[in-house]
Design brief:
It contains three helices and eleven strands. The chain has about 220 residues and is of the alpha+beta class.
Length: about 220
């Protein structure tokens, strides 16, 4: 009788461990993305982003990237816009990451890019080792008050001094009629990267008003 009870206890414990492992694995799908990311970025947009050369690092163990960074020179890598000029340099991209929670794979962010500033409304992070990808729905606004809603995706490799191989994608969800003519059209998007390969930690997060360059959301 004692042997039966002992075997039952062992089987129950093994089932408990298996259940825990299954729950942990369910944070991400087979592509290493959370359900929230899948809901935010449809397969059609994600496939287009990948086809344009955007690296995506899935996984449920991303590094802690909380800090502020500057991507400069911020250069166009690829685009789905017919008249974009590959190699064009945009205004420096400032981004601040905070409130990272790896138990939920969530993070907060805000950014400044030339006349554009914005805040993430629903931001998610995935990755493993030191590589990561952040997916965020952004409410953005220019200095003259023109508003837009975009998806920003940022990938790279975290280091203590900054981010290696910083890649950025933005796709327009809604330019709200684009009354000032600043924004790209709905459904359009770009891949931009830090062309020197390293985005330093910075204590600045601001709009670069002295620059004549546009932000990456500009038409």
């Amino acid at each position: 009788m004692k042997r039966i009870i002992y075997l039952f206890w062992i089987a129950s414990f093994a089932l408990f461990i298996s259940s825990c492992n299954k729950d942990e694995a369910s944070l991400v799908n087979e592509d290493g993305l959370t359900q929230e990311i899948v809901n935010l970025v449809p397969d059609s947009i994600l496939n287009e982003i990948k086809s344009l050369g955007m690296p995506i690092y899935g996984g449920e163990n991303p590094p802690n990237i909380e800090n502020s960074y500057i991507a400069s020179p911020f250069v166009l890598k690829a685009s789905n816009r017919e008249y974009d000029q590959i190699g064009y340099t945009y205004s420096d991209y400032y981004v601040k990451f905070y409130n990272q929670d790896n138990s939920k794979l969530t993070i907060s962010m805000n950014y400044a890019n030339g006349p554009e500033t914005g805040e993430g409304m629903g931001s998610y992070i995935v990755g493993k080792d030191n590589k990561f990808t952040v997916f965020v729905e952004v409410n953005a606004e220019t200095e003259d008050g023109s508003k837009a809603k975009m998806v920003h995706i940022i990938s790279g490799e975290w280091t203590a001094d900054g981010i290696k191989d910083f890649y950025f994608a933005n796709f327009m969800l809604d330019n709200f009629g684009n009354p000032t003519g600043y924004w790209i059209e709905n459904g359009q998007g770009r891949i931009v990267y830090d062309s020197d390969g390293f985005s330093e930690v910075t204590d600045l997060i601001k709009s670069v008003k002295e620059s004549d360059l546009t932000g990456a959301g500009a038409k």
